[in-house]
User: Fold these one by one.
Assistant:
Number 1:
Amino acid sequence: MPLLIIDALNIIRRIHEAVPGEDSEVKVADTITSSLASFKRALKTHRPSHAVAVFDHGGRTWKHELYAPYQANRKPMPSLLREGLQTIKQELQHLGLHWIAIEGIEADDAIATLVEKWCLASPDQVTILSTDKDFLQLLSDQVCIYDHFKGIWRDQAYVIEKFGVKPSQMGDLLALMGDAVDGVPGVSKVGAKTAAELLRINGHLERVISNADKVTGQVGANLRKGVEMARLSRKLVSFKTDVPLGLTWKMLAQNSGVSHGE
């Protein structure tokens, strides 16, 4: 009886970017049609007992309070697409797919909270539908991540091959290397390969920091200078899981009588 969590804007934004042409009502209409088809396909493919689509609420979150430049360079959502989200949300209700958007936190936080609560309540699998690398931190025997566009599971083998670390080290990797898209600073001049090598040697971020004086050259100098930024970045790539979502599992139960366009 698995739970399916859909990172809604991850799906919608990717589809919108793939639709050719400048932003227009026609492009948004195509995005809406394709997005709803994707949501239907996800329900049909994974056949969950419970499902939810999680949206960003928008506006400032606790991460902006922590670090003002957080996501400052992220391109704002086109206004026509933002209006189109209302249509998508209405249609999701007709599909029998519950959606949420919680003020003050990111969709990532709500998704991590759902994962944590599900794993405490049930031994069954939870699948996150997203291409966001931040979720790779959550991978476990019970928590799975599915790339809806490529039709592949992003499992431990994928993480080790692509990033050179285990899923449990992904948060520390992101803290060291930073993330330009989200404005997570990381440590200056420490890229993915260097960060992975440091974690292979030390195991986790705090040990990397405590052994920074043993690292020679520019990397060592940057590490010693970047201790506070590394710790700040670690917080920025973590999840807040103590905010009430206003949900019950019953609200997310999939009614077998509801058509998903099969």
Number 2:
Amino acid sequence: MLFYPATITLSNRTLDFVARLIRRHRAAIGSRWRRFTPGRQALLVLAHLRNGDTYQRLASGFGIGLATVHRYIREVVDLLSAVAPSLEQAVARLTESFSNYALLDGTVIRVDRVRHQKPYYCMKTRHHGVTLQVLTDPYGRLAWVSDGLPGSVYDLTAARHHGVLDTCRDAGLTLLADRGYIGAGDGTITPYRFWKKELGPSYKAANNAHAAIRCRVERAMATLKNWRVLTRVRASPEQVTHYARAIHVLEQQTRS
């Protein structure tokens, strides 16, 4: 078997943050001894999230068993996911920052085939996946990541399911979204659409202005998918939610 060195494109600050979280958790549960120190366990988890390294590769590289790798990763991912902001907290922070609008979009995270395949098959992307709703500030920085829903669920249906539209409307926060949210009602601005005829110059100008602002939400999508574990999730579809929220927390730590 061949071995090679690898790097993780993250700072020591991120490693220290995760290690402190693990250390507090071990003290809280009264864990007396572990084979890995908190720093070593944090490095293992970051290698999985950032580089997308499989359990088998991590087990070989760190010299531990597959079950231990699985247990260590799930433990830390759940810890990170638990401190991710809720929708209400995210909307409150956006309104407190004097922003009168936010950006909303959805993305489909690819997963392996599951037993009940049909609900998870997305016709738009032509593969099985889990759909996530993402809310960002006007600059495209992540503010909130939703629970995962089967890939066949449309963006507007998912937004209504999570209560994003009503929560933002009640807070006086205007949403900018793409054509997938047409019909969302008051408080959500979507592009004009045309059917069998061209739009007039004023409508085209409005769509161009809308696209120039809304394109910043792609920054949030790139932020999520820059963590290779979301390239194709080989765990249970329910784990996509925990992965995405853990990544959100780590990105917030990087910005702070």
Number 3:
Amino acid sequence: MDYTTYFTQNTTDKITKDLIGRPLIFNNGEKLGGYIVEAEAYMGKKDRAAHSYAGRRSQANEGLYRRGGTIYIYSQRQYFFFDVACQEENEPQGVLVRAIEPIWGIDTMIKNRSGKQGVLLTNGPAKMMQAFGIHSRHWDLHFLSDSPFTIDLDDNHKKIPQEIIAAPRVGINQSDPEWAKKPLRYYVAGNPFVSDMKKRDMREDHGWKE
């Protein structure tokens, strides 16, 4: 399946949930990456937590308005975050990849994270981008297939979670309780690389089926 079809044929929340367990790879000379274990859906103009709420549009969030499968990278302070636009052009919805379980290029990712390793390597969206060595918005507005990023859509390469949890998104303004509480964050139950996963909840099998 091509990226345009994948990122437009379903609702954004369903796309986000389906991404859990798929490989995300950044290959800019060396293959770095792992399995997506946590992601959040942003539902566009009606979603008070979305950068495109009420139709806000600027150079900073233009990626959300492009066709599904377009990369949207945004920054907060010195940190960078990886999103992919969902839906048709001008329907500004997207998915934020929050964490991966690292598999490929771990030594290089540790160097990129200044020696951080274990769960601290990629258990958050800014940490994941640091592990990839990304410190700019250079790949913003690029289509996935025209970038060093790959999301493997082959179901034969997907890891299957024992359970996917749907929970409220992280850091959403509580002034709008309806959207703050919507269960639009999906993650692998018990996976240690999920952001803020408590030690007592971590599973030895990382929450995957055999």
Number 4:
Amino acid sequence: MGKVSRFFVFFVLAFCMFSVTCAAAAFEKGDTGPEVAAIQSKLNDFGYNAGEADGSFGSRTVGAVMAFQRDHGLEADGVVGYQTYRLLMGREIPVSRDGSSVMARRIIQNALSYAGVPYQFGGTSPGGFDCSGYVQFVFAQSGVYLPRTADDDFGMGQAVSYSRLQPGDLVFFSTYAPGPSHVGIYLGNGTFISATSSRGVVTDQLGSGYWGARYIGARRIV
């Protein structure tokens, strides 16, 4: 890898590590931890029934958040972002949400370290990757074990809307076959990295003409 390529990878890695930290500053369905319990307690104190303050952001908590948001003139999306958190908790939202941000940073760091590795059909090692082999290998380095194919990966984790993508999410495309036939790792700021058949492991714009037209969804694994 040349000097320019090494600099580019270093720059993207530094940017994405910052982005993951920032992106972690929101609480939504599926999150767990003491901060979620504090949110539930505060909702209950204000008369919004979030159920038991058990630290698990489930459907009842989503409903309570939406009711709170409607009463305060906010978009009722059920996600505790900056504005909702400030109004509810009376302080600024924490920058880091929980251990998932650390895991996402590790996954992105690993993913970027293999930029430039050539494509190999069926490849699952740094000698050559195909798209799902690359994703499987990168996640396994952080102790997260995924299925071998893109269509099986599409059934993992939880669905994520385009507007709520966070670094570390898996992004899927319909390319050579109908359905999820290509998978990559979202880096933040509209970019993702994947093992392409023509250029190997590279970073691309999610909304580019080619990829944007073939994007079919995303899943959050960590």
